[in-house]
Amino acid sequence: MKNIFTNKRIFDASTAASGGFVWNINRDKVVTVLSPATVANMVCGFDVLGFAVEAPYDIMRIQFSNQPGITIINEDDFQLPVEPEKNVAGAALLALLAEVPIPDIGLEIRIRKQIKPGSGVGSSAASAAGAVVAANYLLNEPFSKSDLVRFAMNGEKLASGVKHADNIAPCIYGGVTLIRSIFPLDIVSIPAPELYVTIVHPQIEVRTSDARSILKQNVLLKDAIKQWGNIAGLVAGLLQSDYALIGRSLEDVLIEPVRSILIPGFHEVKEKALEVGALGGGISGSGPSIFMLSTRRDIAESVAQEMKAIFARIELAHHTYVTSINPAGIRVIES
Ligand code: HSE
């Protein structure tokens, strides 16, 4: 161990900033995290529900650097910006560093993305949330999960123009999360029964900002009533492990009718998936990925076969994933 920050000035500053946390830093520490994909909205819960999946995921490694500020090294082929203020992981880390009372601190982050940007399974959230969770671990965990969501939302703001937490929160908390409120943050973990998830990612890009800009700003009361009935039904179904209730609550009368026109094969995928036994599903986040939930892995595999057949027929390149809900969220895999 070398360069431990224990001088009086820093200790005093940190005590004021975060209620007595002592900033003892081991500059040799290196942390690697696995940051999973997430499915936002969960059909009816636009901007308020989301869950983490086991695959795909990004891998990120963070360590201290002699260079003050954030140094980003991309270890993938996505050619994302390396300037911290233009990179979602960088924007999240800048927000975190603004609350670290250590002068001239430098962090170097290596990012190996496997979640394609613009896929609709929380690629930007995996980067932003993974970066701040890894940095928090490196700093001996001065920040709460809620703080980390707050920092990571700066990455989402950069990516989509809006601070939404329905990918960030499940990525950090794991499982299914309800974002009851963003200002102030109020995140509730929802216990969920065993569920398998099939995701198809047609190889087209739908930018979240575009998918948000086409939404109507006003809704009819009768549609709102249907929607909040479904959200409540879905949460109750998850809590009670009532698969039939989960299935019939996976209905979206507000967002899906508008956004589904951006996704070739969408309605056929849903129809065929239900035919082979899926509980239900819909657009993953802002698309173009589509997800379906099933009670058993073999059903989820059959759903994947149907998805592949549909996209092969319409000659659209695609990837499918058969996975499950990830109860842990971001995991430290090496430190
Ligand atoms: N709730 C957001 C949206 C998620 O649907 O726009 C984006 O991944």
Describe the structure.
With 335 residues, this protein is α+β, with helices and mostly antiparallel strands. The chain is built from eleven helices and eleven strands. It has two domains: 4-189 and 327-334, Ribosomal Protein S5, domain 2 (2-Layer Sandwich); 192-324, GHMP kinase, C-terminal domain (Alpha-Beta Plaits). Strands 1, 2, 3, 4, 5, 6 and 11 form a seven-stranded mixed β-sheet that branches. It is globular. The two termini are 14 Å apart. The relative contact order is 0.17. Mean pLDDT is 93; it is low at 1-17. L-homoserine (HSE) binds next to helix 6.
Explain the layout of strands and helices.
Layout: H1 8-18, E1 30-40, E2 49-64, E3 69-74, H2 88-97, E4 106-112, H3 123-138, H4 145-160, H5 168-173, E5 176-181, E6 186-190, E7 196-202, H6 208-213, H7 221-239, H8 243-249, H9 256-259, H10 266-275, E8 280-283, E9 290-294, H11 297-313, E10 318-324, E11 331-334
Parallel strand pairs: 3-4
Antiparallel strand pairs: 1-2, 1-11, 2-4, 2-5, 5-6, 7-9, 7-10, 8-9
This protein binds L-homoserine.
L-homoserine binds at residues 40-41, 46-47, 164, 166-167, 208, 211-212, 285-286.
